[in-house]
Structures are given as structure tokens and as C-alpha cells.
From TrEMBL:
<dbReference type="Pfam" id="PF07690">
    <property type="entry name" value="MFS_1"/>
</dbReference>
<keyword id="KW-0472">Membrane</keyword>
<feature type="transmembrane region" description="Helical">
    <location>
        <begin position="240"/>
        <end position="262"/>
    </location>
</feature>
<feature type="domain" description="Major facilitator superfamily (MFS) profile">
    <location>
        <begin position="1"/>
        <end position="386"/>
    </location>
</feature>
<feature type="transmembrane region" description="Helical">
    <location>
        <begin position="37"/>
        <end position="56"/>
    </location>
</feature>
<protein>
    <submittedName>
        <fullName>MFS transporter</fullName>
    </submittedName>
</protein>
<dbReference type="InterPro" id="IPR036259">
    <property type="entry name" value="MFS_trans_sf"/>
</dbReference>
<keyword id="KW-1003">Cell membrane</keyword>
<keyword id="KW-0812">Transmembrane</keyword>
<feature type="transmembrane region" description="Helical">
    <location>
        <begin position="153"/>
        <end position="175"/>
    </location>
</feature>
<feature type="transmembrane region" description="Helical">
    <location>
        <begin position="196"/>
        <end position="220"/>
    </location>
</feature>
<feature type="transmembrane region" description="Helical">
    <location>
        <begin position="125"/>
        <end position="147"/>
    </location>
</feature>
<feature type="transmembrane region" description="Helical">
    <location>
        <begin position="364"/>
        <end position="382"/>
    </location>
</feature>
<feature type="transmembrane region" description="Helical">
    <location>
        <begin position="68"/>
        <end position="86"/>
    </location>
</feature>
<dbReference type="GO" id="GO:0022857">
    <property type="term" value="F:transmembrane transporter activity"/>
</dbReference>
<dbReference type="GO" id="GO:0005886">
    <property type="term" value="C:plasma membrane"/>
</dbReference>
<feature type="transmembrane region" description="Helical">
    <location>
        <begin position="298"/>
        <end position="320"/>
    </location>
</feature>
Length: 402
């Protein structure tokens, strides 16, 4: 699953380095037109996935998660394959839209592994699996850029489609889905989508967990479109593009290094506590990026920021594993993934608007504020949960003495 998640995650980001150049091959367009449609074409995948992810999760809970992995894996491969033959902006847009429809592979894989993992080591296992997703997102642009330079755009899509097909076939042959005992016992008690939503709304901490997923993605992606410009302000050399890429990728590297560690610590002291720590530390390392005076200060802070947010996704998934019945975990993870996809869309838009009005450094202020607000809200929810638990125990003890 690690290998499959790596290539699926890479496929979503591999077009970043050459998307605008690829659009220019379709005709003679103005720079504004190319920039506008580059944003539309990249963002439409995540926007569609925002609406579709819970459905894939629900189908996985009902019909089997391995089946959904095969449908979405081969679906992604087909969409990328046809991108190698597309000859218009509209065609590329609709293929990226279709890719969003079938982007249910990663949350379904998390649900599959989560359901078959002991609760005591859920953070460790899911953190390890998340390393594959993070690695794919990190190396996707690099792989895409190298392939485009080496073999051209057409063969880049073609090769990627073949690799994802092989990875999905590997899942079909090598991965066995074990039906957990709890799922057999609740097979007659499948909840409707309305009941699942009501279950989520009844758990304040679960709502907060999903809100954190949205905030983290929004804050993280808010600076992405402005990062190259910010690096350009710190450098006068000719290698601005390379340093911008390094600054972008080093966050993923920090994430990759730390995600398994945070998962293990979550298993040991509690995933909610690790989430709180990660949010505070992320804000602490994000804010100083507004005050750097040279590129290496920025690189170092971006790396430490990546380390901080590396624990958020595995701890969120592990908490859902602990708090949600197995029979509906896939759907709940799908909702959580939807919030992450929404953050992927809102982040660049918000960052662009804020930077355009108040300057690039204001984006760092805003995102740091979001991290600290999320930490404060989580702390309040955790305190409220603790008070309710103490009150419930007192009530039970009083009833027992009576």
C-alpha cells in the first residue's frame, strides 16, 4: 500500500512544474489566460474530490475497500493516460475533473489499513503509510519535471499511467482485505449517510478534528503560489527557480522525516495531545518565516514547519480509528479527506488575495493565526470533553452508592 500511495499521490502533483507550458502547446494564448487556466485545471481535481471522497468511503464500507481501491486506482491511470492525447485546454480540464471523481484511493487505503490494525499501534502504522503519500506529493513535481525534460509531455503521462496501473495491479494481487469481526457483527446495522453525518455532528472532538484538517491544508497551501516570489526577494542569483523548488520541497521532507515518530508518540500519550502540540509548534515555526533575511533561514524554518505538521494526518486518522465504528470509518475518513481537499483549493486563493492586498509577509501572519486559533479551539474542546467525562463518572459513582 505504501508503494501504491506513493505513485497515486505523485500523480496528483506531477503536473505542477510544466502545467502552464503544456497549456501553451495547445495554441497561442496570452500569459494571463495561461496563468488563469493553470489554476483552474490544477484546482478542479481537488474541488471535485471534495464532494466525491465521502461517497467512495461509503461505498468502501458497504461493498469492500479493496474493490474501491481497484476502481479508483485504474480510474486515475485512465485519466492520466488520456492526458497524453489531449489537444485542448477544455479537454485537459475535463480529464483533471474526472481525475477528481476517482480520487478516493488514498482515504480508502487508510481506511483499509486502519480497520485491520490494532488500536494500540494505529498511529505508528498509519504514520508509516502516510509516509508513502507524503513522499509521493514531495517527489511528484520532481518526477514530473524530470520526465517532461527527458521524454516530453506525452510520454510523461503515458509512463505515469503505466506505473499507476502496475501499482494498482499489485494491490489486486498482493493485498488481502480481512473482514474485521466488528464489521460482521454490524452488517445489519449499516447507517445511512444522514445517520453518519449526525454521528459526526454529535462528537465535538470529531468535528474539531475535521476542522483542523481544513485549517492545516488552507494554511499550508496559502503561501504556495507566493513562495517563488518571496524567494526572489531574498535572492539576486540566477538559480531562483531551483531555490524556490527546494524551499517548497523541504517542507515535505520534514513531514516525511517526522510523521512516523509523531504517530508512535500518539499511540503512547494520546493522539489528541500530539495534535495540540503539532498545531502550536507549526504556528511557532511558520510565523518567523515572515522575518527572514536570507534564503537558508527560510529553508530551515520550512523544514521545521514540515516536521511539526508531520504528525497531524496520522494522528487525525488514528483518532478516527479509535472513535468511529469500523463499519463507517471509510465514510468518515472520506469526509475528513474532503476537508483536506477543500483546504487545497481555499489555501492558494486566500493566500493570493491576502498577498495582493497586504503583501506576501501578511500570508505568514494569517496562516500562523489559523494554526494558533485551531490549537486554542482544540484545547477548549478537550477541556470540555474532560469535564463531561468527570461529570459522567461522578454521576455513575453516585448511582452506584445509591
Amino acid at each position: 500500500m505504501w508503494i501504491a500511495n506513493f505513485f497515486v499521490a505523485a500523480s496528483a502533483t506531477m503536473v505542477l512544474p510544466f502545467l502552464s507550458i503544456y497549456i501553451e502547446t495547445f495554441g497561442s494564448f496570452s500569459d494571463a489566460y495561461v496563468q488563469r487556466w493553470s489554476g483552474f485545471i490544477f484546482g478542479i481535481t481537488f474541488l471535485v474530490a471534495f464532494f466525491v471522497s465521502p461517497l467512495w468511503g461509503r461505498f468502501g464500507d458497504k461493498f469492500g475497500r479493496k474493490k474501491i481501491l481497484l476502481i479508483t486506482g485504474y480510474g486515475i491511470a485512465v485519466s492520466i493516460f488520456f492526458m497524453s492525447y489531449v489537444d485542448s485546454v477544455a479537454g485537459l480540464f475535463f480529464l483533471r475533473m474526472f481525475m477528481g471523481v476517482v480520487t478516493g484511493f488514498i482515504p480508502t487505503s487508510m481506511a483499509l489499513i486502519s480497520a485491520q490494525t490494532n488500536k494500540e499501534i494505529a498511529g505508528k502504522v498509519l504514520g508509516t503509510l502516510q509516509m508513502g503519500t507524503v513522499s509521493g506529493g514531495l517527489f511528484g513535481p520532481l518526477i514530473g519535471g524530470l520526465l517532461a525534460d527527458a521524454v516530453g509531455f506525452t510520454y510523461t503521462f503515458f509512463i505515469t499511467a503505466i506505473v499507476i496501473t502496475i501499482a494498482t495491479t499489485f494491490v489486486m494481487i498482493a493485498i488481502k482485505e480481512v473482514v474485521v469481526k466488528d464489521e460482521k457483527e454490524t452488517v445489519e446495522k449499516k447507517r445511512t449517510m444522514k445517520e453518519v453525518i449526525q454521528y459526526i455532528l454529535a462528537d465535538r472532538l470529531l468535528i474539531m478534528i475535521m476542522l483542523i484538517s481544513l485549517i492545516v491544508q488552507t494554511a499550508n497551501f496559502s503561501i504556495q503560489p507566493q513562495l517563488a516570489l518571496y524567494v526572489g526577494q531574498l535572492l539576486s542569483a540566477e538559480n531562483i527557480a531551483f531555490m524556490a523548488g527546494l524551499t517548497f520541497s523541504v517542507t515535505g521532507l520534514g513531514n516525511l522525516v517526522a510523521t512516523r515518530f509523531w504517530g508512535i508518540q500518539g499511540d503512547r500519550i494520546g493522539h489528541d495531545k500530539i495534535l495540540l502540540i503539532c498545531l502550536v509548534v507549526a504556528g511557532v515555526f511558520f510565523l518567523p518565516q515572515a522575518f527572514v533575511t536570507n534564503i537558508w533561514q527560510l529553508v530551515g524554518l520550512r523544514f521545521m514547519f514540515g516536521v511539526a505538521i508531520g504528525g497531524i494526518i496520522p494522528c487525525v486518522t488514528a483518532y478516527i480509528r479509535l472513535a468511529v465504528p469500523i463499519s463507517m470509518q471509510g465514510e468518515v475518513l472520506g469526509y475528513n479527506q474532503s476537508y483536506r481537499f477543500l483546504g487545497n483549493v481555499l489555501g492558494p486563493v486566500t493566500g493570493g488575495v491576502v498577498a495582493g492586498i497586504w503583501g506576501i509577509t501578511s500570508v505568514f501572519y494569517l496562516s500562523s493565526f489559523l494554526f494558533f486559533i485551531a490549537a486554542l479551539l482544540l484545547l477548549l474542546v478537550l477541556k470540555g470533553k474532560k469535564k463531561r467525562t468527570i461529570a459522567k463518572r461522578s454521576l455513575v459513582n453516585s448511582s452506584g452508592r445509591a
